[in-house]
Write a structure and sequence with these properties.
Its EC number is 3.5.1.28. Pfam families: Amidase_3. This is N-acetylmuramoyl-L-alanine amidase. One of its GO terms (biological process) is peptidoglycan catabolic process. The protein has a six-stranded mixed sheet with strand order 4-1-5-8-6-7, sandwiched between helices. Helices cover 28% and strands 15% of the residues. It has a single domain, classed as Zn-dependent exopeptidases (Aminopeptidase). The chain contains six helices and eight strands, in the order αβββαβαββαββαα. The relative contact order is 0.18. It is of the alpha/beta class.
Length: 260
């Protein structure tokens, strides 16, 4: 008969020696640098918001390129990181849908889209993180990312905001693997302070976002734990028989008398 040690039983039950839950997670993240694609033949590449010769698409890509290795370094919780684009997309693609299609292809657990705000009011400033109101996980991710924002502080009008009209954060567009999706407005390209921060402190901004994502994952391990987390090469204990499993109406043998 195969015996199972206490440690093996605890591993199979998802517990450590002290009884605390073990929730392995190997999260896949897809980063989406906003804009930078071509929506119609003959049209120029979509620059996003513009301030002089500064384009939203370029800042979003720069921060994304810096964010990717910072997330990859978090090997305690992140398995792989992908970008939806690593430069301008010259061929025509269906607006927004191709970005989500990449997330589905990569089986992304987290999708994060990077953008910049713009306003006619040059004093408007601050970072904001948007999530779909129907996704509690996305709200939690938005709160975690926003809590780390310091280079460009969150907008004074409040923290993360629900938005129900943004394609890339509507969970119904993603596959079952995706547990959270947010859109980060890194700051206002129309505000000199925000714009300069995004241009000169992109590395620090990327680190803040990476830390916020890791905070969210480590605080919510259970939602990323799949069937593949069962330890390998561990013998499975047989279930103990219940009363229903025992034969009914069978006389119990009397013990033999001992030799006197």
């Amino acid at each position: 008969m195969t015996t199972v040690s206490t440690e093996q039983e605890q591993a199979l039950a998802g517990a450590q020696g002290d009884g605390s839950a073990v929730q392995p997670c190997a999260v896949i993240v897809v980063i989406d640098p906003g804009h930078g694609d071509r929506l119609e033949a003959g049209n120029p590449i979509d620059p996003g918001a513009v301030s002089g010769k500064v384009y939203e698409k370029d800042i979003a890509l720069d921060v994304s390129n810096k964010l990717k290795p910072k997330l990859e370094a978090k090997t305690d919780c992140i398995q792989a990181v992908y970008l939806t684009r690593d430069g301008d997309i010259s061929e025509v693609r269906k607006r927004l849908a191709w970005r989500v299609a990449i997330a589905k292809e990569k089986k992304a657990n987290i999708f994060i889209s990077l953008h910049l705000d713009a306003s006619d009011n040059a004093s408007a400033k601050g970072q904001s993180v948007l999530y779909h109101p129907n996704s509690a996980n996305s709200k939690s991710l938005a709160v975690a990312v926003s809590a780390r924002a310091n280079v460009v502080k969150p907008r004074s009008s409040g923290g993360p905001k629900p938005r129900d009209n943004l394609y890339v954060i509507k969970m119904a567009h993603f596959g079952p693997d995706t547990k959270a999706a947010v859109l980060v407005e890194l700051g206002f390209i129309s505000n000199e302070s925000d714009r300069n921060a995004c241009l000169t402190q992109a590395d620090a901004i990327a680190q803040e976002i990476a830390d916020g994502i890791a905070d969210f994952i480590l605080a919510n391990k259970a939602i990323f734990s799949g069937a593949g987390s069962t330890p390998q090469n561990v013998p499975l204990p047989r279930p103990r028989p219940t009363d229903r499993d025992l034969p009914q109406n069978v006389p119990i043998p009397r013990p033999r008398p001992a030799n006197l």
